[in-house]
Structure formats: structure tokens, C-alpha cells
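WARN  no MSA supplied for this record, continuing single-sequence
INFO  ligand: zinc ion
INFO  echoing inputs
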Amino acid sequence: MDRQQILDLYDWQLGVCFRHPGKGAVSTAIVKTIRPRGEEGRDVRACAECVIAIEDMRRETAARRESEDLTSDSDDSRH
Ligand SMILES: [Zn+2]
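INFO  complex generated
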């Protein structure tokens, strides 16, 4: 998936990025909803840059998990 395809998965609205509050209102997407006890759910919004960074991190974690599985599979076949 390229950057644009990833960004197309999200709904974009004007808001403040949780990592770049100094930027002010920019085009942001909801990446998470926090629900503190006794309070209403609060949306965590991220700008395009941060959405890409979060997606990259997710895919890296998934890829690492996958390669670990492959390694353990080849270990099994050797026995
Ligand atoms: Zn940001």
C-alpha cells in the first residue's frame, strides 16, 4: 500500500494533531478513542504525517511477528 492508499482509509477533518498541537487545526483523522472512566470518549486525532508513522509502526510490528513465525517454522522442520 502506498501513502495515499493508507490515507484514503481514514476520514479527514480539521482538528489538532496529538503529536503536533503547535500546528493548530490541520487535516486530521481519528486514530484512537480514549474512554477515561466517568468521562465521555475523547478522540485522538493525528495529521497525515503521524497517521503514516503509526501505520508504518503497525506494519513493522506485524512483519516482525510474521518473520518470527517463519523462523520457528523452519526450526520445527529441521527436527
Ligand atoms: Zn502530527
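The pocket of zinc ion is lined by residues 17, 19-20, 46-47, 49-50 (CB under 6 Å).
INFO  checksum written, moving to next record
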